[in-house]
């Protein structure tokens, strides 16, 4: 394994333009596929074989109007102090809100709080629940806007109105948290290495890796139903392991350069030694994530396989693209202090001189 990785690292170093061009082409293909072939992700999920899932399937079969797997919106009404919901003005406002909810797009049914008994004994708080014909990820913006408009109209009557349920939950998106994570990683790497180039290479390869992985997963969503959480888990794990694996090889490469080896030899030695640890660590993570398919829960299997694919991409990039980028960086990967031409280079393998006794060292003290 070490000999193969040594040759692979030297090959990627020598053919760095070709290797980089291939990976950029793969990234472009993944992004184009994600933009043109992707489909909507799913917020809802099922766990086959469980009693709850059997009940939902039975309701959907025998009472489809119940929309057992559809989205819900629960609108809670609270009367002002010293007032009750039964006061004519407030009751009229609630009945109008219920009627408007029934006319909203994609609504299957709405429970009136007065007829369904959803009012507390004091008559000050009650709720109406709207059931939709489709899961929350299939709701249109018009349906959500209609619920918001009903709530605003009921508030205008003097009632305190709040709404909950998965119908108004925003779709899961990758955003600020991941960006903050990248910035923190950049600061830590910069402090550790003391070089912008050394700190930037692990981040660059990580971003390319998760771009390919997330692009491929997003493209796959056009052919199979994927959970909205699947790309997020793949992104987090892919980013973490990609930086970690690149850090191993970059650290070893800097060590080999400091030992006096030429860059092409340093890359081969770095990939041959640290690359072996990257391969076995990556295989361990991939096997663990792929094992989620054993539990028999579809959305967990999807998440595990997608994350395992992203980890596999991170491993291959660390073994091929990173050596090519190290070829472009050369000795700039070292900090300015280590590149100072006034400092003599340490030889790669200096023979150990004869041991000097304390008596021999005494005249030099």
Automatic annotation (TrEMBL):
The chain crosses the membrane at residues 179-199, 206-224, 230-250, 271-299, 305-329. It is a multi-pass membrane protein. Residues 179-328 form the SSD domain. This is SSD domain-containing protein. The keyword Membrane applies. Pfam families: MMPL. Its main location: membrane. It comes from the Bacteria. InterPro entries: Acrflvin-R, MMPL_dom, Mycobact_MmpL, SSD. Gene3D superfamilies: Multidrug efflux transporter AcrB transmembrane domain. Residues 345-365 are annotated as: Disordered. GO terms for molecular function: transmembrane transporter activity. Keywords: Cell membrane, Membrane, Transmembrane, Transmembrane helix. The lineage of its organism: Bacteria, Bacillati, Actinomycetota, Actinomycetes, Micromonosporales. It is found in: Cell membrane. One of its GO terms (cellular component) is plasma membrane. Belongs to the resistance-nodulation-cell division (RND) (TC 2.A.6) family. MmpL subfamily.
